Amino acid sequence: MTWKALSTFQWETMGPEIILIAATILLLILELILPKESKRKVIGWIGFISLVASFAFLCTLFNHKPTQLLYGSFKLDSFSILFKFILLIAAILVYLVALGDEKIADRTEYYTLFITALLGAMYMASSSDLITLFVGLELLSISSYILVGIQKRREKSTEAALKYVINGGISTAITLFGLSYVYGLTGTTNLTEMNIALSQGMASSNEFLLVIAFVLIFVGLSFKIASVPFHMWAPDVYQGAPTPVTAFLATVSKAGGFIIILRIFLSIFTAAVLNEKGVTIFENMQPVVGILAALSMIIGNTVALKQSSVKRMLAYSGIAHGGYLLVSFVSLSPFMFESMWFYLLSYAFMTIGAMTITYNVEKQYGNDSLASFAGLGKSNPILAFFMTIYVLSLAGIPLTAGFIGKLNIFMSAFVTVKGFYWLGAILLITTVVSYFYYFGILQHIFFREGENRKIRVPATHLLVILVCAVVTILLGVKPSLAYEVFHKMEIIKDFFAA
Amino acid sequence: MNSTFLLWFVLSPLVGLILVSIVPEVSRKAAALFSSGITAVIAIYAFVIGQDHSILKDWSMSYNWFQFGKYAVDGHKLFEVKFELGVDGLSLVMLLLTAIVSVIAVLASYHLNKGTKPFYQLFFILQIGMLGVFASQNLVLFFLFFEMTLIPMFFLIGKWGRFESEKAGYQFLIYNGLGSAFLLFVIAVLLARTGTSNYSELVTILQSGMNTVSPISENLKMALLVCLLIAFAIKLPLFPFHRWMVNVHTQANPAVVIVHAGVLLKIGTYGLIRFAYGIFPEQVHKMGTILAILGVVNLLYGAYIALVQKDLRSVLAFSSFSHMGIVIMGLAAMNSAGIQGAVFQSVSHGLIAALLFLIVGMLESRVGSTSLQKISGLAKVSPRMAGILLFGAMASLGLPGLSGFVGEWLSFVGLFESHKIIAAVGTLGIILTAAYMLRAVLAMTFGNTSDEIKEVQDLTAFEGMASLVLILAIVLLGVAPSIVNNSIMASVDFILQGLGGI
User: Fold this and answer.
1) DSSP label at B198?
2) At A396, is the pLDDT very low, low, confident or very high (cuts 50, 70, 90)?
3) Boundary (domain end) residue, out of B237, B262, B280
């Protein structure tokens, strides 16, 4: 590339990513040149600053017009901006939790890997080419494999890492296998070109192949969002991994999974019209995704009932929440983007908040069982109060973000002419089932007697807990704060623009 | 009168919430009484002023809350959820009931001696929820307040009750959560398919059959109505959804039960009239006979079980359940007398149940039990308490001149007009009610004074005051039922218009 080509290149569109790449390199170099005895926490704070800078840069891009770079493999549109917004907010919060983590605070790679994993997820949001999408996916996956196993002397952490790697490997293989079919059919890896190729009638004669591709890709990617059929890793990994990593997997990684699913499925399969039926492959496959969503909600919420470890419980509830989001995805309605965006955003706040408190309780009592929460209302009323907010939000009680998110998902499911009533009904019934375990936590906190131990919470954690609680309530009381950000963008128009 | 009046009214319990959080423990109960008193004064003021219905329009307020999507038709925003408050005569009656019952509950909670701070905090949140339910003009807002009663109630039942109150709290949560789920389903479908959740806009859209966003077929309407009926049947409760309610009545703290029986059950009546009857009149009309049968089953089944209970609390629990049957019978009649009767019965039962559970609270704090076997001869030891108990029983069984009679009378008159045979079967319930009430109350008041109650003191000043308020209200409604009936007339007529326009 000549100098001229480089200077006309629109660098600012990739600004957030470039900041993160630079930070990663800087962190690695610092690790090498800093004397052995100096504290590594400094490195962590530098990483934190880079995340905030990246977020600030992203905010300046809000009014940027849609742009494509690098032969369409990098795309800056409202979809990518809005979803990177969630990724960065969640990552900043998770990172703050990690900074308060004393056990692993002296490991530089811990901080670096968070940033590379985030980079992978962000690249997925911005890519419209299968190659870069896949690279982003793998960057996210491989970084998180290591993060899960970073406490290599702890048996549970190692076990979790191994499970995660093996499951992840299998799922990646399945995804790739599915992608190979659509590549074979269309001869291109660019999603926009694929969209055009498929909409010109190629789909009808190859319906069977496309259906196989659809199922394979979906099954493979369900690993990332921890939904049926690839959900079984979640409880073990959530429990075994260090809690900041768990929070990362539950929020950033899950959001990344939904981002890639939206990109691939909406770009490819909504265009593939089957002439004789007059429907697209996506509409054809709606029942399948619907069943998987229903299974996720049912399995997640019923198995969570029997858990005594809060982290495992949150893992199963995460599976259920993945199912809720899929309800919105499957409906393919005008509210789809909006409801998934809002839900992922509010889910990030409530989950990170709940995880942070669980982490501190676990640190004080030695385990994260429900019994550790007993009497928290007396011994640590402030933590108990915040935990109540998160739990109520997860349960979808009004005046919290969780309720508005759920209502929006219902809107999405019911607004289309055919209306996905059964999925909506399953969502509602399983929500009531989820009251059993969510309120089980509150029951332990407020009704049971426990040891009267004060929990000392690190300052960064306190900040996270406070921010998460305030935003959870704020989005429940005045959801227009978030919706105004969202409605500034023409996401549907941008997404489907060639 | 400015238009934020209702907002301040609904939020007035915040005064109490703040006061009980900051004042020292000695004056906490006084602060709670003060705050609930303020709300009651506002409620009475609103009720009196509001008798001139033309003023009610000025009170309604609307505030842009949030919007899903950014769609609009002809400059009219779709999928917008507004913060809309407004009242009519029916709401005013319910609001007044809520405010009065809340004062009584605060007085009844004076026996409480530990954990008063969280108790009153939760109580005032609950009160905001109850007031909001009756004042909201928007389904989403209604649901918000509806759930705001659910969570505090769960804690209030679970933490301050008898031995098995935790279980009762859970049962309350799950049953009502299920009810809320049905309700939310209806609300979400209506909002998604019509683009609005405003109550009066929905009435217009559904009755005219306009197609604003997505079509709503006749089958869907019927399904939505059934969901609504289930949602409010759980709240009311109707057979076979009553287990939770009996457990709450027998396990929770008496002050909590007063609110529960006095107001929360009435949300069921209110919701049925406002939403089921208001939005789906055509479909409701087809359900008349089923509702009437369900009402009679409720009345007889509850009364029959109450007849064999060994504890005053259980008797009263099944009595509440049984009396809700009369409400449903009145509603099933689908005529002016019936619906008026249903509302009247709800209000009157709220007052009577509050009075009876006030006595339960007194007995529990003194004797520690309300067992019919342990307590007898109350009239000798504490004649005033026994007298009030007898008065409550008389009101409950429908003695003419007291409020219970008017509600029953109107409901039966209504039902005899539309379903003669079912109503005739239902009259058996009146006899059964008299039987179980007298059986329980006579056993307690007369006979040999049992050892457990030898030392029992008669009413304290506060208890006397609380009882007096309720007794006056019950007598007043009994001799001048028009106080309630005039207020609700316009609302009932509106509902009947919908029902009759078929």
Assistant:
1) B
2) very high
3) B280
Considering the domain architecture, whether residues B303 and B271 belong to the same structural domain is answered as no
Domain boundary residue, one of B249, B280, B311: B280
Question: Is residue A6 one of the residues assigned to a domain?
Answer: no
C-alpha–C-alpha distance, residues B74 and B359, integer Å:
59
- For residue B441, the enclosing domain spans 287-502
Instruction: List helix spans (H) across A34-154.
Output: 41-60, 78-99, 108-126, 130-148
pLDDT band at B501 (very low <50, low <70, confident <90, very high): low
**Residue A63 domain flag:** yes
Answer whether B177 touches A (CB < 8 Å): yes
Same domain, B92 and B241: yes
Q: Is the ipTM of this complex over 0.85?
A: yes
Mean pLDDT to the nearest integer, A331-358: 94
List, in order, residues 6 or more apart from A486 with CB less than 8 Å away: A82, A338, A341, A342
- List, in sequence order, every residue forming a beta bridge with B76; answer none if it has no partner: B73
* Same domain, residue pair B214 and B315: no
Average pLDDT over residues A376-399: 93
Residue B113: both structure tokens together: 């001696």
**Chain B nearest CA to A398, separation (Å):** 5
Question: Residue A4 domain-assigned?
Answer: no
Whole-angstrom Cα distance, residue B160 to residue B115?
8
Distance set, CA B114 to CA A444, B32, B56, B258, B463 (Å): 19, 15, 42, 19, 19
List Cβ neighbours of A230 (8 Å cut-off, separation of 6 or more). Answer: A167, A171, A219, A220, A222, A223
State the Cα–Cα distance between residues A424 and B182, nearest whole angstrom.
11
Q: Clarify whether residues B93 and B69 are in a common domain.
A: yes
- B256 and B321 in a single domain? The answer is no
Average pLDDT value for chain A? 90
pLDDT digits (tens, 9 = 90+) for A114-139: 999 999 999 999 988 999 999 999 99
> Is A5 within the bounds of a domain?
no
> By the CB < 8 Å criterion, does B114 face chain A?
no
Domain count, chain A: 1
| Total number of domains in chain B | 2
Residues B446 and B489 in one domain: yes
- Residue A153 in this model has a pLDDT that exceeds 90: no
B65 contacts A429? CB cut-off 8 A: no
Task: Say which residues have a Cβ less than 8 Å from residue B71's Cβ, sequence separation at least 6.
Answer: A334, B77, B78, B79, B195
pTM of the model: 0.94
Domain range holding A361? 14-496
Do B295 and B367 lie in one domain? The reply is: yes
Burial of residue B212 (CB within 10 Å: 0-12, 13-18, 19+) is middle
**Which chain A residue lies closest to B160 (C-alpha atoms)?**
A447
Is B502's pLDDT higher than 70? no
The pLDDT value given to residue A1: 56
B74 and B187 belong to one structural domain: yes
CA distance to partner chain A, nearest, from residue B184 (Å): 8
